[in-house]
Amino acid sequence: AKAPAMSAARTNVRAARASSIRMADAPAKEERTVRAPVFDEVCEQTGITLTRYMMEVSRANPDLRDLESLINGIQQACKTIANLVDRATITGMVGYEDGGGSVNVQGEEQKKLDVVTNDVLKRALKFTGKVGIIASEEEDEPVFNEDAYKVPGGEGKYQDVLADIGSKYVTVFDPLDGSSNVDANIPTGTIFGVYEEKEDMENCMVGGNVEGSCLLNTLQPGSALTAAGYCLYSSSCIFVFTIGAGCNGFTYDRSIGEFVLTHPNLQIPKRGKIYSMNEANRWDWDKPLQEYVTALQTGKGEIGQQYSARYIGSMVGDVHRTLLYGGLFGYPSDKKNIDGKLRLLYEAAPMSFLIEQAGGASLTGKTRIMDINPQKVHQRVPFLAGSYDDVMEMRSYYDACDDPAIIKRCLERLEGKPASA
Predict the structure, then answer these.
(1) Which residue, among 224, 174, 222, has the nearest Cα to 198 in the 3D structure?
(2) What are phi and psi of 169, to 5 degrees?
(3) Which tens digits make up the pLDDT trace of 300-338?
(4) DSSP bridge pairs for 233
(5) Is residue 199 a contact partner of residue 216, using CB atoms and an 8 Å limit?
(6) How far, in Å, CA of 302 to CA of 308, rounded?
(7) 8 A C-beta contact, residue 247 and residue 358
(8) Count of CB atoms within 10 A of residue 414's CB?
């Protein structure tokens, strides 16, 4: 008798919240209309390259002209990383840095490629002249790029002495997500997000310490993102990104050295037939999630069909498959990791922006990830994302749950208090 009551409760809650659920249409930051480029002519030999795509974005959106340089810097870094990953076994770039014992701020042992790819991305972004702050999984604190503020040809003078010299961005990234998989030749990827600066950055770094203004610029919610994306290193190398005008995918054509548009206007199916999570942790998950996954496995969910399980263990690979085929991917909260394992700033938020732009949804369980204000650079958050209808069905289980501990955690995240604090 209890199960039907729970089902009815989920249905009622879902109907009552229908208008508030579509939060992807109401970002917290001031609305900016981004015009997607239109291509009347396409080269038969090269197609539409990422370089040309960004040139057309810049022409259609003059206020984003500096983003062209930044994205070009990221794509060049990704080409370099793709080659490093391809040749890792040949060049000896496998295994742990310094033979083991090298640990990042997360307490995770660094692979050799973690260190090298982090340096590749930092340098590529620095040389664009458009990035003022860089935050990475492999850096303890945000890195201030003071070179971006110097007058060209000048010595140590900041650009803000000149009028309208150009935009400066904050770029966050995980240089090589899933790096532990490289030795086994399993897909890996780079995740990035781009924010606009909120405050003047002159004297952001004083005496080697990160000033408050530097952190203020870095700790922005996903709703403030200007661009986000990932580069997947697998059977082919694919660069998928958004500037807030839909989601597009470009495949690396090594014969011409360019990313070529192969997945225009990517749209995630409203429903999928796949769920993707590490089920070794199943009995430590929140009760609503256990119930939802059981319904998927037994064909007792809303559409009455059994789902299949697929799990790579590399976020970029799992998200890419979910974008193409639909369904649900998650790294949820569990008893050992109340806040999950994924980092909000440079993993969960950029991927959430991308998924929402493709027509999907991304939640912690019942809270929209894009609405969460990060309090720390390396703050963690649960992540459950994918096809809109699948994610909303999952959320209905959380909405019907009256566990005070779960309700409290969700409210505290929105208030900027990590559950583990």
Answers:
(1) 224
(2) -120, 155
(3) 999 999 999 999 999 999 999 999 999 999 999 999 999
(4) 188, 237
(5) yes
(6) 15
(7) yes
(8) 13
